[in-house]
UniProtKB/TrEMBL annotation:
Organism: Rhodocollybia butyracea
InterPro entries listed in its UniProt record: NPHP3-like_N, P-loop_NTPase
Keywords (A to Z) from UniProt: Repeat
Protein name: Nephrocystin 3-like N-terminal domain-containing protein
Lineage of origin: Eukaryota, Fungi, Dikarya, Basidiomycota, Agaricomycotina
A Pfam family the protein falls into: NPHP3_N
Signal peptide: none
Transmembrane segments annotated in the record for this chain: none
Residue ranges of every copy of the Nephrocystin 3-like N-terminal domain listed in the record: 27-180
Keyword Repeat set for record: yes
């Protein structure tokens, strides 16, 4: 079962927002992706770090990557996927075996900048080797800082695989991301994501 949920940072308190993310890491055969959207200064990054820390304290396997618009040359979508794959490979032997097999079959993979190819070979393929009893959470902070809003550019392709390609991952893999609700994000939210019941002030 797959479930994609948007949470608005206009919810009244951080505790309320966190309560809506409480199912992350639950072992109920439902693979969820949460995206926390809101304006700058609404606490999105703080929540992302809090969620990551709490999940690690509960012995879940967590991989975290934060984008930064001041570091666009190094913190690219392509580097983000490589970084996530590396973290999971270091922390899980079965995932590492999957990465080894991927590079063995495609030696040029390390230099690839294709988001779709990286997603399939570095994330999805190895993910299916991980023990299903292990709960894994992938966190991306500040998706809106991952590059310019342009069709078919790396940012657009990353949004596509995270929101539609997430369905390729096994049910023990969960996703959590934060972003300002910019135009390209809205397109994918409207297409793929079940909206949370919390309403922003514009909805009143």
């Amino acid at each position: 079962m797959q479930e994609l949920i948007m949470i608005r940072s206009a919810c009244q308190t951080q505790e309320e927002r966190l309560s809506r993310i409480s199912l992350i890491g639950s072992n109920d055969n439902t693979s969820r992706t949460y995206i926390l959207c809101g304006e700058a200064g609404t606490g999105k990054s703080a929540i992302a770090h809090t969620v990551g820390k709490e999940l690690q304290e509960h012995q879940l396997l967590v991989a975290f990557f934060a984008f930064d618009r001041s570091l666009l040359e190094s913190r690219t979508p392509s580097n983000a996927l490589r970084n996530i794959a590396n973290i999971l490979g270091v922390r899980d032997h079965d995932f590492a075996e999957g990465l080894f097999q991927a590079f063995k079959e495609e030696p040029t993979l390390s230099g690839s900048t294709s988001i779709q190819r990286q997603w399939e070979k570095l994330i999805v393929g190895p993910a299916h080797r991980v023990d299903p009893s292990k709960q894994v959470v992938i966190i991306f902070d500040a998706l809106d800082e991952s590059g310019p809003q342009m069709p078919d550019e790396p940012r657009d392709r990353l949004l596509s695989v995270l929101m539609s390609g997430k369905r390729d991952l096994p049910s023990n893999f969960q996703g959590f991301a934060t972003s300002r609700l910019e135009n390209d994000v809205i397109v994918y939210v409207d297409k793929f994501i079940k909206r949370d019941s919390c309403k922003s002030s514009e909805d009143d």
